[in-house]
Description:
The chain is an alpha/beta fold.
Amino acid sequence: MMSAFGELIINRVPLAKKEMLQAFDQADLLALDYLQSEALLNPSSNVLVVNEAFGAITCATTKALCALGGALPTLWSDSHIAHLGLQYNASANGLPVAHFVQAQNTPQGPFQIVILRLPKSHALLRDQLQRMLPQLAPGALIIMPLMVKHLDNAVYQLLESLLGPLTTSLARKKARLIFAKNNSMMLGQSPKAEETHWSLPSLGLCLQHFSGVFSRTKLDPGAQVLLDQFPEGPYMQVIDLGCGNGVQAIMAAKKWPQCKVIGVDESYMAVASASINAINNSVEDQCEFRANDCLTDIISQSADLILCNPPFHQERVIGDQIAMRMFAQSAQVLTNEGELWVVGNRHLGYHAKLKRWFKRVEQVSAHPKFVVLKAQL
Ligand SMILES: C[S@@+](CC[C@H](N)C(=O)[O-])C[C@H]1O[C@@H](n2cnc3c(N)ncnc32)[C@H](O)[C@@H]1O
């Protein structure tokens, strides 16, 4: 990446043999140009970067601040993959790793400069802004780099309602910066992270959600179909792959009191919510939730059941790449007799795709919109 602060190696993680997508975009470069041309960084700058995907801005500002003898910036994010990206890219450039704060916690200011990549979820954005504002130094500048196609009225209005008057830069290569500078922002006590709750009385479950958690306002219809067609068992070692609020993991722990369940998700807020939900539903002794990229570092042939309601996008990138990695890694992690149960939209064609790794793939449910598939080696 040729940035205003010099050339940097910035990769997406996990590394792919043939990577088609870049780990940074024109909006990142525009923000770095602005920081440099306005000479905004100095040895006492306390910089907060929010929600960036692979650490491009954080690494570039780390480089600039180190050269000035300043303090390391902080990256605040809900994504474990972003954390891995920051670590990988800092090391690839011989840079110290910036501070990292998981999204359910609040970074402690005062920050003079915030570079905020807008998340897709408005709930997460609102929650982050409400907790961030009290952590800003008086006169702090918030720079929001974005690709023009991602700016809609609803998000602009939300930003104005929380940040006051906004200004924008000229567009360059379809990227633009939005600025907020409000002298009334003061350091003070931040509110707690926003939570939503709902329950499933028929299953006796109550579930809590931090703002970035999938299906934070109601049960996902795909998750409902899998709960309705839950495997019979019994099983001893269960994995909930992409666990979200932990609903499938908790259901498994309740159904098979002798089993151990690991729930993994790349969202820190999901892992934190699932851990709280296990306690609130009295299955915490059976369940362990971890921030993980798919099944990386989970022992081979260790699970006899994997439950999976796969994601169909990573932030704004839509596709089944993550689902495919989840299926491939499941084939490694299952015992010879183990079963992968997947729920997905019928049109996604998971049945044929699973056959790349599994000899037997059987359709378990006949819901008009969703299929539940059982795959065995
Ligand atoms: C469709 S949701 C399913 C959530 C929950 N299991 C349910 O049934 O409601 C998919 C989940 O996969 C998670 N996810 C996305 N990419 C991931 C990755 N690389 N590794 C682990 N989890 C991931 C998302 O954060 C999300 O919580």
